[in-house]
Write a structure and sequence with these properties.
By secondary structure, this protein is α/β, with parallel strands linked by helices. 41% of the residues lie in helices and 19% in strands. The protein has one domain: Glycerol-3-phosphate (1)-acyltransferase.
């Protein structure tokens, strides 16, 4: 079997497992009713890389047309294929690899196709819980608001990675919170831009901390990147 075909089979299995976990869990959703407002009015959904596993079913269930920003790395391409099965198309790149092209293409599709954008703001390699600039540029250049989203769960498994990627165990409770829309002035520059970035980051970290605290989960460390994490754990 061709390598690409094998990858699609693996991706389909992961997507099936994701749906099974999602559908067999209890749901504790906050403000998800606001998602129906974004079906015809694009937004920039922002989330931390380690908390994306259960967000795809939420966006899919809300019937929101969206693209996602995905890394060109092998793992990123695999994730993008899985997102495609949830109806999310990919734009490949990151803040460290093809950032300008990603911004241009993302702005183009948001304006021309009237779709939303999903951005893992600390991916693909960290620092963890750090909001990078890309999402603010999307919002500033399109007029679409930034909407912080996050999930947590009562019975998590954490992957041994810099982002502590969270995967819920079966038959637990999944919590999902949709934040309030945050608009970025098209004239925002320099120090004011950085203040707004830090403000949104603070909102996102608070959102994650509060949700994890509801389940008495351990505190996720911020500021980790993939390189330092591998060094610290003697990984290569």
């Amino acid at each position: 079997m061709h390598n690409s075909a094998i990858q699609w089979v693996v991706v389909a299995l992961f997507a099936g497992v994701t749906w099974f976990i999602f559908l067999t869990s209890r749901h504790k959703f906050t403000n998800t009713e606001s998602l129906k407002n974004y079906r015809k009015s694009p937004v920039v959904f922002v989330f931390f890389h380690g908390r994306c596993a259960m967000l795809s079913p939420v966006i899919r269930s809300a019937r929101i047309k969206s693209y996602c920003v995905a890394s060109r790395h092998k793992d990123g391409r695999m994730m993008a294929r899985m997102q495609r099965l949830f109806g999310l198309r990919a734009i490949y790149g990151s803040t460290s690899d093809g950032a300008v092209a990603v911004l241009r293409e993302g702005v183009r599709v948001m304006k021309q196709e009237n779709v939303s954008m999903c951005v893992p703001v600390d991916g693909p390699s960290g620092p963890s819980l750090h909001l990078q600039d890309g999402a603010l540029y999307f919002a500033r250049m399109t007029g679409a608001p930034i909407v912080p989203v996050c999930f947590s769960c009562s019975r998590p498994m954490y992957m041994d990675r810099w982002d502590k990627f969270m995967v819920p165990k079966l038959f637990g409770t999944i919590s999902c919170r949709i934040g309030e829309p945050i608009y970025i002035d098209s004239k925002l520059r320099g120090e004011d831009f950085e203040k707004k970035r830090a403000e949104i980051e603070k909102i996102m970290v608070k959102q994650l901390r509060e949700m994890d605290a509801e389940f008495n989960l351990p505190k996720i460390q911020s500021g980790l990147n993939s390189t330092d994490y591998r060094k610290h754990t003697h990984k290569k």
